[in-house]
Every structure is written in structure tokens, then in C-alpha cells.
Design a protein that fits this description.
By secondary structure, this protein is of the alpha/beta class. The protein is about 40% helix and about 15% strand. It is built from 16 helices and 16 strands. α4 (about 85-95) runs antiparallel to α12. The radius of gyration is 22 Å and the shape is globular. The structure holds pyridoxal-5'-phosphate.
């Protein structure tokens, strides 16, 4: 066992071990930094002590540039629900490529893809495609504003919906101070980046997640409120599911006040159930944003909803269609990849029972262990979305998450990586390819990391 006088030194030992086992990855990232800001294409790839540089991904494993093998619970940030590089997707892409890479026009295969959305997702009667989850959430807000003629959008504290100016607030990236956040009953709108257009984010109000004060705030702004967007299971905040009663009340009050209820299903869509969170919770929103899984591993987003809610995307609508366009929308290659994935998910709905049971197993075993061994730890999530927090709980929202024991989470993350787990920093995912032995290994790595940090006096 390493013996260190203080926690910072201990974490540095773990960092040195990671650097020692992946020198090529470190060198590649450092080279990237000479020509790319931060050396990454997305800030969420930054990791302690440096980003993972992936060489290959197959099934439930990834290999880094030093040929270290990792058990994968990141799955490209939830995307690869059939495991990495599935055969059906490779074949579909190859077949589509033989016809062309890009037309910027309608093509023969969009109907089948769109029909799968309409058949699988209960709240989708019409769907349109774009290129990322960010774009998708942006369009849902535009639809809501255009349809209601009202200026305000509400989002929940801790909810992440992409990087556009309207919603880049109050998800907690820089770790705002308690003063900046405001009271739990009335969270402040905290910009997450310099450079946001003030006129955009100031029209976004922030609601407390899983907290009844959210409904009072909606009522206070009712005549100005165009829509409320929610991740039914908050992902980046730490895999926190909304209570069903809370979502039901949100459905009721948005209907009563005439605001759109918008589900951000970028993570939950085609993950919690074939019909996403709206099937899982049996609650139908007006419109939803999709991305990730449904693009089959290629860049993708979609907006789907009831025909009535999507009316202002029709070209002959009154007062005219909202602006929705994109050179690459409905790309034939992405359509082929996405169709292959959705077809398999539709054909084998039993995959969901398996994946969700694996998530339950993780939560049950970790929570039992934490209780028996008296760790302030709690596993959260829903279905195949999971995480373990360094606190006793209950965990209802990001304010609870911020009560975690200091230094434990950074220590755990370093130990996961050192011990061969590839997992995002705040939410993990299971896929159809994971076997029970993989979940056993996931649990064992978690328990070993907990024991190590306790032995070191961190926890
Ligand atoms: C819930 C949620 N919404 C929207 C987005 C944005 O999607 P994209 O990264 O494709 O723009 C993400 C990305 O992680 C997400 O998790």
C-alpha cells in the first residue's frame, strides 16, 4: 500500500502511474495541444491527468495508444448501445457508401428511419433530423417560442442540453459558488461560458429538479413561458432520475399553462426503453430532442413530437415554418447507421430487460456494500444509466451531489482509469454486449477503489 502524508500527494501517485502506463497517449495529446486549443475536440474529453487517446474500440472494450485495454462503460458518451463497432452498422455504412457519401437532398432511406422513430417512440408522430443533440434542443425551443409566442424557456438546474447560448446555463461546469446559485427554491441562471449572448441566456429561467418549488416558479412565469425542457434522467449531473410523480405534475402544469413540455432524450432516447424515457415513465411530452444512440455512432440529432407540436415545421403552416435547415441533415450514411441500430433494438426489445437488470444489479450491490461497510456512498441512475456518488444520499438533484465527500470522487476516477475502467466522470452506461462478468468486474473495481481510499484515510 502507498503511504502518503496528504491526499494531494496520493492523487499525484495515481496520476504518475497513469502517465507511466500511457506515455504514447500523453505524447499524442501534448502534440495536439500545439495545434488544437486544449488539445481536444470537445472540452468534456479533458480528463485527469490527461485525456484518453483511443486507438481502437470493439465490443465492450477500448484500447489506448499504448495498447492498454479498458472495459468500456463510456460507450462514446452513451452512443454505442450495441457495443463498439457493431457488425450490422459496419455493413449498413458500407452499403450506403457504395451509393454516395453526401447529397444534401432527400433520399430513398429517410422514410424508413423516420418511421422507426414514429413507431418506436410514443410521443413522436413526426420527426426531423439534424447533426447533434445541441442542435436538436435548440430547435425544440424555437418551436416552443414560435408556437406559443412567448419569450421564456425553463430548464432544470444540473440539466445539460448541449452548448448553444440558450441553455448553456446552470449545469454546473465551473462549479459555481453557493451565492451564485441562489436559493434551492429559486435557482439563479448562471452562464457556463464567457461569450454567451446575453439576450439569449437571460430568457432562460432555472428550476429546481425533483423539487415542488419548480411548479411555483412555473406558475409565477406562466404567461411568459414558452416551454420547459427536462432530461427525464439527468445524465451529466450524476445519473439522477426524475421522480415519476414530479414528471407527472410537470406534464399537468405545462398543459395547464400552455407551455411546451420538452423531453431532452439525447441520452434516454432508445436507452431506457425502445421508446425512451417517455415509454419508461409513460408520460408523453409535446416534443423531444434525440441524438447519440439513434445516429448509430455518427454525428446525429433529431427533433420529434406530436403532429400538432411539430406543425410549425411544415412549410405551409401559419404563420410560416420556423427556420430549420442544415447541409448534412439526414445524411445517407448516418441514416443507414441509425436505421441499422434502431431495427435491431426494435426486433429485440428483450435487450432492454437485460441492460436495465445490469444497471439494477450495479446499484443494488454497491448500495448493499456501502451500507454494510458504512461507506458514505450511493449508486444512482435508471435502467442502464448509472453512477456512484461519494455521499449517503438521498440524491435528488445536483445540490445533493455537491455535498459529496471532498477528494473522494477525483480519487475514484483516477483509480477507475488506473484499474482498467473507461467511464465518463459523472455517469456510466451499459450496452447490449456487456455480460454479467463485465458487471462483476465493474462492481469489483468500484469496491476495490472504495477500500483503497478508505485504507489511505481519504474516506
Ligand atoms: C442530455 C443531453 N442533451 C444534449 C446533449 C448535446 O448533444 P451533442 O453533444 O450531440 O451536441 C448531450 C450531450 O452529451 C446530452 O447529454
Amino acid at each position: 500500500m502507498i503511504v502518503k502524508d496528504n491526499i494531494t500527494e496520493l492523487l499525484d501517485v495515481y496520476r504518475d502511474e497513469i502517465r507511466a502506463k500511457s506515455p504514447n497517449s500523453l505524447a499524442i495529446w501534448q502534440q495536439n495541444r500545439t495545434v488544437m486549443p486544449a488539445g481536444v475536440g470537445s472540452l468534456f474529453r479533458l480528463a485527469d491527468p490527461f485525456p484518453m487517446v483511443v486507438k481502437k474500440a470493439k465490443g465492450v472494450r477500448v484500447w489506448d495508444a499504448d495498447d492498454n485495454e479498458y472495459l468500456d462503460f463510456m460507450l462514446g458518451f452513451s452512443v454505442m448501445i450495441l457495443g463498439n463497432t457493431p457488425q450490422v452498422v459496419q455493413e449498413a455504412i458500407r452499403e450506403a457508401l457504395s451509393h454516395g457519401t453526401h447529397y444534401g437532398q432527400c433520399h430513398e432511406h429517410e422514410y424508413e428511419f423516420a418511421k422507426l422513430f414514429c413507431d418506436m417512440v410514443p410521443g413522436v408522430e413526426k420527426v426531423t433530423f439534424c447533426n447533434s443533440g445541441t442542435e436538436a434542443t435548440m430547435y425544440t425551443l424555437r418551436l416552443a417560442r414560435a408556437a406559443t409566442g412567448r419569450p421564456l424557456i425553463a430548464k432544470f438546474e444540473g440539466g445539460y442540453h448541449g452548448t448553444h447560448d440558450l441553455l448553456s446555463v446552470s449545469f454546473g461546469r465551473p462549479g459555481p459558488t453557493a451565492d451564485q446559485c441562489g436559493a434551492i427554491e429559486d435557482p439563479a441562471t448562471v452562464p457556463e461560458s464567457p461569450g454567451l449572448a446575453e439576450g439569449a441566456w437571460r430568457n432562460t429561467i432555472v428550476l429546481p429538479f425533483n423539487h415542488p418549488a419548480a411548479f411555483d416558479k412555473i406558475r409565477r412565469h406562466a404567461d411568459q413561458l414558452a416551454g420547459v425542457i427536462i432530461e427525464p434522467v439527468q445524465g451529466a449531473a450524476g445519473a439522477i432520475p426524475a421522480d415519476r410523480e414530479f414528471l407527472l405534475e410537470l406534464r399537468r402544469i405545462t398543459r395547464e399553462t400552455g407551455a411546451f413540455l420538452i423531453f431532452d432524450e439525447v441520452i434516454t432516447g432508445f436507452r431506457l426503453a425502445p421508446g425512451g424515457a417517455q415509454e419508461y415513465y409513460d408520460i408523453i411530452p409535446d416534443v423531444s430532442a434525440f441524438g447519440k444512440i439513434a445516429g448509430g455512432g455518427l454525428p446525429f440529432g433529431a427533433v420529434g413530437g406530436t403532429a400538432e407540436a411539430m406543425r410549425l415545421m411544415e412549410f405551409d403552416s401559419e404563420p410560416g415554418s420556423i427556420l430549420m435547415a442544415g447541409t448534412f441533415n439526414g445524411s445517407p450514411i448516418v441514416t443507414a447507421a441509425g436505421t441499422a441500430v434502431l431495427q435491431r433494438l426494435r426486433k429485440e426489445p428483450q435487450l432492454y430487460a437485460r441492460m436495465n437488470a445490469m444497471g439494477d444489479r450495479f446499484r443494488n450491490e454497491i448500495n448493499k456494500f456501502a451500507q454494510e461497510e458504512d461507506y458514505p456512498a450511493m449508486a444512482t441512475g435508471a435502467g442502464s444509466i448509472f453512477w456512484m456518488h461519494a455521499l449517503r444520499g438521498p440524491i435528488n438533484n445536483i445540490r445533493d451531489v455537491r455535498q459529496a465527500v471532498r477528494f473522494v470522487s477525483p480519487g475514484l476516477r483516477l483509480l477507475y482509469r488506473k484499474n482498467g475502467l473507461h467511464i465518463p466522470p459523472n455517469h456510466g452506461f451499459m450496452c447490449a454486449e456487456h455480460a454479467n462478468e463485465d458487471i462483476t468486474q465493474l462492481i469489483e473495481i468500484h469496491k476495490a477503489a472504495m477500500e483503497e481510499l478508505r485504507a489511505q484515510g481519504v474516506w
